[in-house]
Amino acid sequence: MKVPGEFEGIERVHLMGIGGAGMSALALLLAGKGFAVEGCDLARSEYTVKIENLGIDCVVGHSPLHIEKFSPQLVVYSSAVDSNHEELLAARRRGIRTAGRGLALSWLFNASQGIGVAGTHGKTTTSSMVGLILESAGYAPTLAIGAEVCDIGVNARVGKSDFFVAEIDESDGSFEFFKPAVTAITNVDWDHVNYFHTREDVVSAFIRFAGARKPDTPLVVCAEDAGAQSLIGELKNDPKLVTCGWGKSWNWGAYDVARKEGGGVVFSVACNGETLGKMELTISGDHNVMNALVACATASSVGIPFETAAKTLREFRGARRRLEKLGERDRVQVIDDYAHHPTEITASLSAMRDAYPGRRLVAIFQPHRYTRTSAFYREIASALEAADIALLLPIYAAGESSQEITSEDIFNIMHADGHRSIFCSDENDALARLDSLLGKDDVLITLGAGNVSQLGEAYLKRVSQLPQKCSLDYNATEFEELEERVSELEDKAPRV
Q1: Better-predicted residue by pLDDT, 148 or 4
Q2: What is the pLDDT of residues 207-262, one digit of tens each?
Q3: What are phi and psi of 304, to 5 degrees?
Q4: CA pair distance 143, 29, nearest whole angstrom
Q5: Mind listing the domains of the chain with CATH numbers?
Q6: In sequence order, what are the beta bridge partners of 362?
Q7: Is 174 helix (H, G, I), strand (E, B) or coil?
Q8: Residues 72, 12: contact at Cβ < 8 Å?
């Protein structure tokens, strides 16, 4: 299998943070291309379980000793790992090359016919849609998606063609390493405030990303937010610009939208003012109408007709944690969603109102990162007021140091507005309240990018308390010594 030039001479790759969605996807791609791959993370996850089942070794904890143990020729680290972590420093001292996840993924992507899907919101769903449309059209693409695609059961795989569909993450600026042959942008909103200090910083970064694509290649942009409109204003003279939005005034437009009770939506699609036909989705929400429109425009740019795209998306089941139906208990429908930004919260709750009209909506929200919560806590409070009852969990730090902001600040705003909200001390407190709060025909939705999804699963399984958290002070030397001692005891044990 052809290996990109940046990987020339490399046989073994070590991944730090392998348990995350993006890093586990990279692990699958590298293994699929014939590299020897292993990695480490602070804890096991659903992703490590899946890749371990495929023969990829995953070690718990980070340690400089991993460099000696595995002898990699390249060490790739996630954005959650400090670039000067002692394990990385140990690799550099030995002359071993290191690279961030985004850079390493771009080496694979840029050597292919890359179709890159970027945007502050919706890129996981849209890239999943694009990948499946290409698959249905017989293009057999390589995929790298930020979450498991329900229709294929994985978040990454190596295809047989030169097409490479990737969700490209802007959160740490690494998306500027990518040079797509087709570029799709779902929206341009302000987020990741620890990296982008202003809305203008985000727009400028997307302008650079759009300008870095391969020469004379398509640029598909959904124009239904202020940031994307600023982007289009800067790129309006680009002859390859394709715009998407509501109505027939865009290159690709959606109109005559009918929302289906129980979930799903039907709408008409126009291209350059001419109606192409109806599209039906099983997933809900106006935001997913726009995602589907971008996917159709992107597929069209490589020659796939609308009819093929519409047929594929009619059966599309979505991605994990994107308005995912977990099940039903005592006529309570349980939904899980990744929404952690006010724009996403608003879109998800609106979609549930359309799908379940007249039913009471109970939301459990877990804020994600202190920096994001500090920047948007007022907007988060406003967005959550679309639920009938909102339960608030403590902030999921995602590696950030604690700040003065807390979930109680969101609660206080909602309480002052007269909205029914409940501050929960932890996940078990929230779980304990559900039986008395929920009634028949209610809809329970868990929202957030942390571990909030476990509450919906626990409620469905009638679990009264989540497993107690434990905090281990990981000592790499003691761990290695313990492994050696276990091996010695196994060697001395009598054989039966």
Answers
A1: 148
A2: 999 999 999 999 999 999 999 999 999 999 999 999 999 999 999 999 999 999 99
A3: -90, 125
A4: 8
A5: 5-103 (3.40.50.720), 112-314 (3.40.1190.10), 324-460 (3.90.190.20)
A6: 389, 444
A7: helix
A8: yes
